[in-house]
Amino acid sequence: MNRLPTVFISHGAPTFALEPGRAGPALAALGRALPRPRAVLVVSPHWMSTVPLVGTASRPETVHDFGGFPAALYRLQYPVSGAPAEAQRAFDLLVAAGWSPRSDAQRGLDHGAWVPLMHLYPEADVPVFQVSLPARLDSASAWALGQALAPLADEGVLIVGSGSLTHNLYEFRAGDPREAAYAREFSDWVREAVLQRDDERLLHTLSRAPHAQRAHPTTEHFLPLLVAAGAAAPQRAVSVIEGGIEHGVLAMDGYVFGAVESA
């Protein structure tokens, strides 16, 4: 198998599982176009820890780690197998790169993993494991985390950073459905940096992009983009997962770093 692309997904609100919008069909199309991976590795802001934790469960549970949503959402299950062998390989790569990972055989899949995977691989037929997002990560160390995991892409593992291109929960809860101009301006700025493969600009998004503080009052939902970009091959092609803006303020675009060649 040739090297797999790496992917950044905006997983939006948990209701994305029930309301696919534009991004859901785009993810489904991507899942059909990609060569079938041995496993999927997801880094999500909904599993954070002091050091990287590697999920090694053979049958990870579907974790409904949210509250106040429709009852139908809590009945959803993503009955996927884990990937203990690939998780051990990720553990070893992190050790070799100077991180201090630990294994976690009990942790299930948080909604940052299973919600978008319901669109990407709706049959739950590709094994999945997670690596947690270290809580003290900044942009440079997020990129380095991706670089540490990058060899997995040569070994049939699809590396997915799952976050949100914009993530202002206060404004999301305000419930204004009108598209916020700042969300569009911020996401357009990021798109230009990604498509131009301007890694230096992308690395400094949170300090240079317009409305960065408003788009990301906290950084954890942006950093998975840098993990995915850091794991990508140099001089990669980049394509956009078109997601639009949902709920007025949640930019749902994602990115595929690397050429997509159907199996």
UniProtKB/TrEMBL annotation:
Domain (Extradiol ring-cleavage dioxygenase class III enzyme subunit B) ranges: 36-235
Record keywords: Dioxygenase, Metal-binding, Oxidoreductase, Zinc
Cofactor(s) the record lists: Zn(2+)
InterPro entries: Extradiol_dOase_DODA (IPR014436), Xdiol_dOase_suB (IPR004183)
Single Gene Ontology MF annotation: zinc ion binding
UniProt superkingdom: Bacteria
Cross-referenced Pfam families: LigB (PF02900)
Sequence similarity: Belongs to the DODA-type extradiol aromatic ring-opening dioxygenase family.
Descriptive protein name: Dioxygenase
Species in which this protein is naturally found: Hydrogenophaga crocea
Taxonomic lineage from the root: Bacteria, Pseudomonadati, Pseudomonadota, Betaproteobacteria, Burkholderiales
